[in-house]
Amino acid sequence: MVQERTLPSFNAATVQITKEEGLRLYEDMILGRFFEDKCAEMYYRGKMFGFVHLYNGQEAVSTGVIQAMRPGEDFVSSTYRDHVHALSAGVPAREVMAELFGKATGCSKGRGGSMHMFSAEHRLLGGYAFVAEGIPVAAGAAFQSKYRREVLGDQSADQVTACFFGDGAANNGQFFETLNMAALWKLPILFVVENNKWAIGMAHDRATSDPEIYKKASAFNMAGVEVDGMDVLAVRAVAQEAVARARAGEGPTLIEALTYRFRGHSLADPDELRSKAEKEFWFARDPIKKLAAYLVEHNLADQEELKAIERKIQGVIDDAVQFAESSPEPDPSELYRFVFAEDE
């Protein structure tokens, strides 16, 4: 069993959250969970092909960070586990599901599939199949925001970029090189490490000299923070502070969110490497159940309101599948389209 780190303490009593905010967080997390469950069903029914990596268990990270930003204005860079980041960023479930089906109505026109979600409209910079590939791309987005504001004098260019990646990426060269540049240039970026303990089949503790990734920020004179990635309120609080710092010109933050994927690395993974005891330790910390309990306990919602949200989202998911199934395949005549940028 992988040695478990003590999850960072978080005093929920200090949280200032309205009912509307709480229900929005819950709805976003339910959307991610229900969407991924449906993906598993569709994959095993032969509707999706290739590798499909699900996000179940990690919803508090995507929701906590992206909902602390300005969806549709700020930038988000993802990984090959990108469906839920796309949904949190505002990409319609219809477009994400259609992309998974390889249809022309998908957010990447059916060219990207599971690992390459993209939406210029929603400032989603893409999912990236290669480990750590999105880190320098995200830095480029953050650099252009800073350049437009400070050099070109565009005061509206105060966008922040959130760059998501896994614990395995923190051992790659792009991680160190990009964090160095981001610190030197004080780029408005959040480096969000989703430490789910496993890089495919390699346990994190066996792959790195120092398993506490957030401490690596000190090498770059950068703010680094550890957070319980199974607690959306804790993630949101950390992200809000990091976003405020970035928007104020105070530079980047490295956030290590301790989380866990509830399924195997991909839907083709039999998931035999992780122990039963390890899985049970994390299953008991389901972030959705934790938020639901908080909302009810603090009189921000009752069970019927939560069930109503679940019914609403189930309708959204069913609609997304129907849309994807009825959408056309990409036209063969456009095989070479989108290889290069097109004039508007």
TrEMBL record:
<dbReference type="InterPro" id="IPR029061">
    <property type="entry name" value="THDP-binding"/>
</dbReference>
<comment type="subunit">
    <text>Heterodimer of an alpha and a beta chain.</text>
</comment>
<keyword id="KW-0670">Pyruvate</keyword>
<protein>
    <recommendedName>
        <fullName>Pyruvate dehydrogenase E1 component subunit alpha</fullName>
        <ecNumber>1.2.4.1</ecNumber>
    </recommendedName>
</protein>
<dbReference type="GO" id="GO:0004739">
    <property type="term" value="F:pyruvate dehydrogenase (acetyl-transferring) activity"/>
</dbReference>
<feature type="domain" description="Dehydrogenase E1 component">
    <location>
        <begin position="29"/>
        <end position="332"/>
    </location>
</feature>
<keyword id="KW-0786">Thiamine pyrophosphate</keyword>
<dbReference type="InterPro" id="IPR017597">
    <property type="entry name" value="Pyrv_DH_E1_asu_subgrp-y"/>
</dbReference>
<keyword id="KW-0560">Oxidoreductase</keyword>
<dbReference type="GO" id="GO:0006086">
    <property type="term" value="P:pyruvate decarboxylation to acetyl-CoA"/>
</dbReference>
<dbReference type="Pfam" id="PF00676">
    <property type="entry name" value="E1_dh"/>
</dbReference>
<comment type="function">
    <text>The pyruvate dehydrogenase complex catalyzes the overall conversion of pyruvate to acetyl-CoA and CO(2).</text>
</comment>
<dbReference type="InterPro" id="IPR001017">
    <property type="entry name" value="DH_E1"/>
</dbReference>
<dbReference type="InterPro" id="IPR050642">
    <property type="entry name" value="PDH_E1_Alpha_Subunit"/>
</dbReference>
